[in-house]
């Protein structure tokens, strides 16, 4: 990690300690320690395992999307990518550092930059679509109850939904109305040019045009590779369902055995949606608030609710972040280049 990233990592740890102290200020500490000592540690361990496991599934998704007749990405290299992404998502605003870190990890494995960018873009499309599908199903199952009981947080959920819907709509417009989207970009961005120098504005427009062109080209390739895309979509749905189930096992660890797993998962989907609109790395502050608000229905005990929130935050945020630090220290094998050389040798012999 660079010095800047190390500083961000340290700041997030300090900020989290501050939130921990803030959350514990009104809690009876005797009750808190009693609840901590009476945890079912096996369920908690299982929650940690499935958190790591769903990132390992993402490694398989990377292989499915990458491996073809010219490139073979080993699982060792493929699984590094999601863990490193998790680390940089956790320490950058709006998770903006995740994709550049993924790109570097892919290039370290021997996959060329252009292909890496296209593959990561494809993975992003699939992930966004899977998140949207899960959220729509959640809205059908549990949003009405949330809107009735927590009107304030319901607006945050809707804002998260609109943000994701706008992202998906933009991607679909590029895929199916490419020329129209290019013209629309010129119109929408015109007022931005009023507040920038001509040189900077032209540079920005060139960058945006390039990104749209790259995305369009990749989306056309995506349409032609239906088998790989379907496999990736199914694996992504499985990955998300596993991730969304983590709070349920935390509830079991706390002794709350009567909760409906589908209701718990739907609440977690909403929390993830809310967290995505907070600019602070990891959605810090918004994540804790939304968990305490939505899961109060499942954990009526105040000390258990705070303990559950802290355990959930540790597993879904810090386990991934610290695992990413470990994976960052594990060197990549440039085995993707080996197959490229073999392909070149075959071509030369032919």
From TrEMBL:
EC number, UniProt record: 2.3.2.3
Top-level taxon of the source organism: Bacteria
GO biological process, one term: lipid metabolic process
Reaction catalysed by this enzyme: L-lysyl-tRNA(Lys) + a 1,2-diacyl-sn-glycero-3-phospho-(1'-sn-glycerol) = a 1,2-diacyl-sn-glycero-3-phospho-1'-(3'-O-L-lysyl)-sn-glycerol + tRNA(Lys)
Cross-referenced InterPro entries: L-PG_synthase/AglD
Class of enzymatic activity (EC top level): transferase
Keyword Acetylation: no
Role summary: Catalyzes the transfer of a lysyl group from L-lysyl-tRNA(Lys) to membrane-bound phosphatidylglycerol (PG), which produces lysylphosphatidylglycerol (LPG), a major component of the bacterial membrane with a positive net charge. LPG synthesis contributes to bacterial virulence as it is involved in the resistance mechanism against cationic antimicrobial peptides (CAMP) produces by the host's immune system (defensins, cathelicidins) and by the competing microorganisms.
Protein name in UniProt: Phosphatidylglycerol lysyltransferase
Organism the protein comes from: Schleiferilactobacillus harbinensis DSM 16991
UniProt lineage: Bacteria, Bacillati, Bacillota, Bacilli, Lactobacillales
